[in-house]
Design goal:
Layout (H helix, E strand, L loop, with lengths): L2 H13 L3 E6 L4 E4 L1 H7 L19 E4 L18 E9 L2 E8 L1 H15 L9 H14 L4 E7 L2 H8 L1 H18 L5 E6 L2 E6 L4 H17 L2 E3 L2 E3 L3 E7 L6 H17 L4 E4 L2 H23 L2 E10 L5 E10 L9 H8 L4 H18 L1 H6 L3 E4 L2 H5 L3 H11 L7 E6 H6 L1 H14 L2 E7 L5 H5 L6 E4 L1 H4 L6 H16 L3 E4 L5 H9 L4 E2 L8 E2 H4 L16
Parallel strand pairs: 11-12, 14-15, 15-16, 16-17, 17-18, 18-19, 19-20
Antiparallel strand pairs: 1-2, 1-5, 3-4, 4-5, 6-8, 6-11, 7-8, 9-10, 13-14, 13-20, 13-21
């Protein structure tokens, strides 16, 4: 070959980005281009003679090496990397095409890792944890499963931001891992839930591990971006006890978690069969309410709220009743707490508002200026669009907003002060009444009054029942009345069940009362008939 032609071929080869090598069949290097030098260095290439790299064979992936034992990335950066080598015969020589696949291999490795791990905490994810649990149940009869929920984690995200929430989850992951036995597998199920597969131990030991996690977390301050936070956990524990189905164990641990949260959080509960029976009852009740919403099995009763000075009914509180003809009968106390934990309660709230506004728009109730009060769940209160929807519904039906009042309990308001303030402000700006129900049942009640723009305080029944006997209850009622009056709020005493209470409450300055002595709940349709009576509009009953 003429020198100028050889030079031209070298120039062309060097312009190619693929690393190219020519060797003899016994590994003597004949030629390589600049891309090969940049990728592999300029040392010997006898490592290319492995049995797996054969002329005409498939491309082979392997760690790139130079004479110094380490490969070189494009650009001459030192360090090991992954390459793909393809070899083909070239006359009496071997031609190697070598491609740098380090980035591809790294991405592939990361995808494999992410398939089994949580990207935020680095813990194994639900998929990998389930596989570990399956393996445990197939080979052992001891051990168990814990499901861990971070108490009130939504408040951290809402108040401090998701970045702080993410850091809390990372810190908790480290804390839990340090607390658990070495043989335990900690994973993250998603959101604010962790899970632990315990490789050994009976029921008592499983519960003991769960309680230790609660105790360590409760007494360990979490320092997040310079701020110190206190976090607690609720844990459901389910021992293996010879169980072979991991889904059953997940269900059992979840039922234990439900009991822990119902009992007040910051605690662990061991699964018991009785919890399963309770769960079946809850599911059946939710199903009945769902069916009743769709088929008309729900009704509203109205209980009068009476002016204690005049005896005149000022408004009616609407109470949901399940009348689907199925036994056993269940009351609101049986199904509302269960509904509060899911989205169905929001549908129920919308249904009640729609029924209330339809009744208020009826010609008979319009003429008598009937006023209704509706209880709102914490789920609807947390919905930023709920207040605007209520106002829009009133406007669409041309209803004076003053005729509709909404109520939330004190404990509901305290659970999310920002949401309570937002809803109260929206409704008051439109002209609606807004009541704080069960006032005094929570803690630090008076602290929240200055921040919540309510029109009415409903005094918890436990303070009202013995107010006519003097003593502590009368003092507390007097304090509530003074605070409410100073803030321009109306007071309503609940559970007024006898005549002596009426006089006592009136003397204490309570404005209105509600209870069986003043008027029992009756179907709303008695106040607002389906159609107007030609002989005269139906009038609301008075106490």
């Amino acid at each position: 070959m003429k020198p100028d032609m050889r030079t031209l071929i070298d120039q062309v080869a060097d312009a190619v980005s693929t690393a190219l090598l020519l060797t003899t069949n016994d590994g003597v290097l004949v030629w390589r281009n600049k891309a090969a030098v940049a990728l592999l260095g300029d040392g010997p290439v006898d490592w290319l003679l492995g049995e797996s790299i054969q002329p005409g064979g498939p491309a082979v992936e392997l760690i790139s090496r130079s004479s110094g034992g380490e490969g070189r990335r494009p650009g001459g950066a030192a360090g090991s990397g992954w390459i793909r080598v393809h070899c083909q015969p070239f006359r009496e020589l071997r031609l190697y095409e070598i491609f740098d696949i380090t980035d591809i291999h790294r991405a592939r490795t990361e995808l494999i890792y992410l398939a089994d791990h949580d990207s935020l905490t680095g813990l194994v994810n639900r998929r990998a944890l389930t596989a570990r649990l399956d393996d445990l149940l197939a080979n052992a009869s001891t051990g168990g499963l814990l499901i861990i929920d971070v108490d009130n984690f939504k408040d951290i995200n809402d108040v401090r931001g998701h970045a702080v929430g993410d850091e809390v989850m990372r810190i908790l992951a480290r804390l839990l891992r340090e607390t658990l036995p070495p043989t335990a597998v900690l994973g993250r199920l998603g959101g604010d839930e962790f899970a632990v597969v315990l490789a050994e131990g009976d029921s008592a030991q499983t519960l003991a591990v769960a309680e230790e996690l609660c105790n360590v977390t409760a007494r360990t301050p979490l320092v997040v971006y310079g701020d110190t936070l206190r976090v607690t956990l609720s844990v459901g524990a389910a021992p293996a006890d010879g169980e072979r189905d991991c889904e059953v164990l997940f269900t059992n641990a979840d039922l234990g978690l439900y009991e822990a949260k119902t009992a007040g959080r910051n605690r662990a509960r061991l699964f018991a069969q009785e919890q399963y029976r309770h769960a079946v009852t809850r599911v059946n009740v939710v199903h009945r309410v769902r069916e009743a919403l769709d088929t008309g099995g729900l009704e509203l009763d109205a209980q009068p709220i009476v002016d204690l000075a005049t005896g005149r009914t000022t408004s009616y509180e609407l109470l949901v009743r399940l009348r689907d003809g199925i036994h056993p009968e269940v009351g609101p106390a049986d199904f509302l707490p269960t509904l509060e934990r899911g989205d169905l309660v929001r549908e129920l709230d919308h249904w009640v508002i729609e029924q209330a506004t339809t009744a208020l728009a009826h010609p008979a109730s319009s003429r008598t200026e009937l006023c209704l009060d509706v209880n709102v769940s914490s789920r609807s209160m947390d919905d930023a669009a709920f207040g605007d929807w209520v106002v829009g519904t009133l406007e669409a039906l041309n209803i004076d907003p003053r005729r509709l009042g909404l109520e939330i309990t004190e404990t509901t308001a305290i659970s999310n002060l920002d949401a309570a303030r937002r809803l109260a402000s929206t409704l008051r700006a439109a002209g609606c009444r807004f009541s704080l129900d069960d006032f005094g049942a929570g803690f630090g009640s008076f602290v929240y009054l200055k921040n919540l723009p309510f029109t009415t305080l409903k005094i918890a029944g436990e303070f009202v029942r013995q107010a006519d006997a003097g003593g502590v209850d009368a003092v507390l009622v007097d304090a509530v009345v003074r605070a409410a009056t100073g803030l321009g709020m109306t007071t309503v005493a609940e559970y007024v069940d006898r005549e002596p209470l009426v006089g006592a409450l009136r003397r204490l300055g309570v404005d209105r009362g509600q209870g069986f002595h003043l008027g029992r709940p009756a179907p709303l349709k008695r106040l607002v008939p389906p159609r107007e009576d030609p002989g005269g509009a139906a009038e609301p009953e008075t106490a």
